[in-house]
Amino acid sequence: MKTSSNWSYLVPVFLSFYIMGFVDIVGIATGYVQQDFNLSDSVAQLLPTMVFIWFALFSIPTGIFQDRYGKKRTVAISVVLTGVGLIIPFLFYSYITVLIGFSILGIANTIMQVSANPLLADISGQGNKAANLSFSQFVKATAALLSPIIISFLVAEFGEWRLVFPIYAALTVIVGLWLYRLNIPESRSDKAPATFGSVIRLFSNKMVLILVAGIFLIVGFDVGVNSNIAIFLRNRFGMEMATAGYGISVYFGSLMVGRFLGGVFLRFLSEKMFLFISIAITFLGLFGIIFSGSVMVAWISIFAAGLGFSNLFPLIFSIALDRMPDHANEVSGLIILAVSGGAVVPPIMGLVNEQFGDAAPFWVLAICMVYVSYASIYLSNKPVGGSANA
Fold first, then answer.
1. Which of 156, 168, 45, 181 is nearest to 105 (CA)?
2. What is the pLDDT of residues 206-240, one digit of tens each?
3. Which of 24, 117, 271, 290 is the most buried (most CB within 10 A)?
């Protein structure tokens, strides 16, 4: 029987996911910073690099820290750091201070991704964990969608895009204070506190290896579709790049729709059933893209692939936390470490495209999905409340 969740806890935690989405401001900000300081393309692209490099460096230490000091405290720290990273480029605007600010923003985002997901799982009612994790990704995507709109409004009305920084910083302060004042119940393990050595030893467990590899390929799939779909549409159908770029909007739109629907239907359907339905729809979309003979079929297939894929990350995250509750903090750190898959799969797709043509990169994604399917079946068949040492 499912129990209801406490919304006095859920609302501020969901808002922390909205703040998590602030990191996507880097995409549109890079263009403005390049314009303001007359930067070359290579120098300007250091900005997004300075955000995402920290996933590889801070994920495991964050998991260890929150295992010792708690998830709520870790989320609160990440919210404060987000505010600091946002306000620095506004108060002291130069290319160097933007690099510093975005580095702090990247560190904060890494910490928040490691800690906010298991904290949300702790406060979700019985049977609602996967649904809430899916909805949290919808909330995060909403921030990414609204940032360009907010910046465009600020430029049109006030002539200054950087006003977005103090606005977002103020929101982080409000949410940070809200979280700090709440006595949020957290699950605690009786095991010894995590260490770097204990986290590394988790890799000796088959379940952990399969989980991390699955997340690695899920993130690679996401970035691979995002970075290749416009190129595919241009090459397959002779579109102008501006028109082909709408394929990315279709994909992101399908992710938002899928995550919202996941937040609803996962309250009624089992995780395993919803997972298998999601995988099937993803494959249908992928094969539709590969064999599409018309633009309409391609658009529909892109939407289907995104719709099916949209909930795979939160579903597998939820399953992993259920199967290894005593190691939730360390596993969360390893899952976010696997986000680095977004830097590996797209270059492989580029090489395959050069050798075998426009549809070939999507066969790479199909291979990724074959492994993700295996990982999903393996993890979902493991008993709930098991041990990472089993």
1. 168
2. 888 998 899 889 988 887 887 778 888 888 898 88
3. 117
Full DSSP string of 54-72: HHHHHHHHHHHHHHHH-HH
Q: Is the pTM of this model over 0.70?
A: yes
Q: Give Cα separations from 373 to 155, 167, 216, 279, 357 (angstroms).
A: 45, 42, 13, 7, 26
* Amino acid at site 317: F
In whole angstroms, give the CA distance from residue 73 to residue 115: 9
Q: In whole angstroms, what is the distance from residue 138 CA to residue 389 CA?
A: 33
Rounded Cα–Cα distance for residues 56 and 53 (Å): 6
Write the single-letter amino acid at 152.
S
The C-alpha torsion from 349 through 353 and 355 to 360, rounded to 10°, is: 90
- List b or e across 337-369, with b for residues whose CB sees 16 or more CB atoms inside 10 angstroms: bbbbbbbebbeebbebbeeeebbbbbebbbebb
